[in-house]
TrEMBL record:
Residues 4-126 form the VOC domain. GO terms for molecular function: metal ion binding. Gene3D superfamilies: 2,3-Dihydroxybiphenyl 1,2-Dioxygenase, domain 1. Keywords: Metal-binding. It comes from the Bacteria. InterPro entries: Fosfomycin_Res_Enzymes, Glyas_Bleomycin-R_OHBP_Dase, Glyas_Fos-R_dOase_dom, VOC_core, YwkD-like_dom. This is VOC family protein. The keyword Transferase does not apply. SUPFAM superfamilies: Glyoxalase/Bleomycin resistance protein/Dihydroxybiphenyl dioxygenase.
Amino acid sequence: MFEAVHHIAIIATDYQRSRAFYRDSLGFTILAETFRDARNSWKCDLRHGVVQIELFSFPDPPPRPNRPEAAGLRHLAFTVADLDTAIGTLNARGVVTEPICTDELTGKRFTFFADPDGLPLELYEA
């Protein structure tokens, strides 16, 4: 039925800050950017490889529950070929990453970091 994930939609509290984070810190390319007057909202389409993010701004969005095991989307994970290199790149760009962990089921290494709104993001070594 499904072939792939088409996009991930993210609502930012500070659109310009999040736009810069996904573009400059994570290396996404901006495909399109539109201001929607009727919603007083920006929409930015970003792509990195096969991953596409729709970044939105809305006036006064409610905060996301910040408990580690809250219901809903837990985190967004990106595959990387070399975890150490990816961490070094993020750290050089000012992104703080957590200590490296090893998945007890797969033996693969991973780490977490956060976007400007605290959305949990993961790097998972292929």
